[in-house]
């Protein structure tokens, strides 16, 4: 995967609460979270783009109070799947 280098004001990163010890990962998660929030990518794709597990990304989203976009239709689909699997 190609990478780019950018310069950002330190104050911007501090204000965003981005950890300096894992700067690239933290910035990648913020960008992926915004893509997910805008419904440009799925939760799984957002996690993949920033190189973390779906569980870690879900925790990151919850910490930043971003809803998971789980609809009533999703719930019904999951219930049907569970019933079909005889759980």
Low-pLDDT ranges: none
Which overall shape is indicated by the principal axes computed on the Cα atoms? Answer: elongated
- Rounded radius of gyration (Å): 16 Å
The helix/strand class is mainly alpha
Helix content: 55-70%
- Total beta strands: 0
Q: Would you spell out the secondary-structure blueprint of this structure?
A:
Blueprint: H1 10-15, H2 23-37, H3 43-50, H4 54-63, H5 72-84
Could you explain how this protein is built, in words?
With 87 residues, the protein is mainly alpha-helical. The chain has one domain. The protein is built from five helices and no strands. It has helices spanning 10-15, 23-37, 43-50, 54-63, 72-84. Helix 2 (23-37) runs antiparallel to helix 3 (43-50) and helix 3 crosses helix 4. The longest helix is centred in the middle third of the chain and has 15 residues, at 23-37.
Any key phrases for this structure?
single chain; mainly alpha
Could you give a short description of this structure?
By secondary structure, the protein is mainly α.
